[in-house]
């Protein structure tokens, strides 16, 4: 294993679901450095102060906080327009000399929209209202799709149970789960 791989910080599974006019976003709390868990209860989601949105991040914490601050600035600049603010952040993230070095992804949910924003300039709105980012994201996404299609669980229940399933599979995900709901 290369030294850069052995010291690579891995962390997080973030999952958001919209169902029946409600949105939930949750994450686990694990942060891993190489093959060692260095923290069990990292908080990776937050509500925005000036908009009815919940955001989550995967990647470098300082980078993600910087991006979340920029996203809030964009929301204020564009009158709370979620999609426009997300596109403007993604554009800046990709083209700005300082921002393009930041390594993180953002998940954003409102009561009716779910978006993934990346540093490659992507703003993705999944058709099924489910967003997932981070190390265990594909496990959580698969579980959420199955639960949404085959159960009556609400958005918060789907997020919580999907993250539990991901924690049982992904070594970079734990069961210290935090969920916020709109």
From TrEMBL:
What is this protein's name? ATP-dependent protease subunit HslV
Tell me which residues this entry annotates as catalytic.
12
Q: Which GO terms describe its biological process?
A: proteolysis involved in protein catabolic process
Keyword ATP-binding (UniProt): no
Q: What class of enzyme is it?
A: hydrolase
Its quaternary organisation is:
A double ring-shaped homohexamer of HslV is capped on each side by a ring-shaped HslU homohexamer. The assembly of the HslU/HslV complex is dependent on binding of ATP.
Q: What does this protein do?
A: Protease subunit of a proteasome-like degradation complex believed to be a general protein degrading machinery.
Binding of Na(+): at which residues?
A: 167, 170, 173
What keywords appear on the UniProt entry? Allosteric enzyme, Cytoplasm, Hydrolase, Metal-binding, Protease, Sodium, Threonine protease
Ways its activity is controlled: Allosterically activated by HslU binding.
Q: Which GO terms describe its molecular function?
A: metal ion binding; threonine-type endopeptidase activity
Q: Which PROSITE patterns match?
A: PROTEASOME_BETA_2
Family annotation (NCBIfam families): ATP_dep_HslV, PRK05456.1
Q: Which domain of life is it from?
A: Bacteria
What are its GO cellular component terms?
Answer: HslUV protease complex; proteasome core complex
Gene3D superfamilies per UniProt:
Glutamine Phosphoribosylpyrophosphate, subunit 1, domain 1
Q: Where in the cell is it found?
A: Cytoplasm
> Which protein family is it in?
Belongs to the peptidase T1B family. HslV subfamily.
Q: Which reaction does it catalyse?
A: ATP-dependent cleavage of peptide bonds with broad specificity
Q: Cite the EC number.
A: 3.4.25.2
């Amino acid at each position: 294993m290369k030294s850069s791989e052995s010291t690579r910080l891995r962390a997080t599974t973030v999952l958001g679901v919209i169902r029946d006019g409600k949105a939930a976003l949750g994450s686990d709390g694990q942060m891993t450095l190489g093959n060692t868990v260095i923290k069990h209860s990292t908080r990776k989601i937050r509500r925005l102060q000036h908009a009815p949105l919940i955001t989550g991040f995967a990647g470098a914490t300082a980078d993600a906080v910087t991006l979340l601050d920029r996203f809030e600035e964009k929301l204020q600049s564009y009158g709370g327009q979620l999609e426009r603010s997300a596109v403007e952040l993604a554009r800046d993230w990709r083209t700005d000399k300082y921002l393009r070095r930041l390594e993180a992804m953002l998940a954003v949910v409102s009561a009716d929209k779910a978006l993934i924003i990346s540093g490659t300039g992507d703003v993705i709105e999944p058709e099924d209202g489910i967003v997932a980012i981070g190390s265990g994201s594909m496990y959580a996404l698969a579980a959420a799709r199955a639960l949404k299609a085959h159960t009556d669980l609400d958005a918060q229940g789907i997020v919580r149970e999907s993250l539990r399933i991901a924690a049982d599979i992904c070594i970079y995900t734990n069961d210290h789960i935090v969920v916020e709901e709109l």
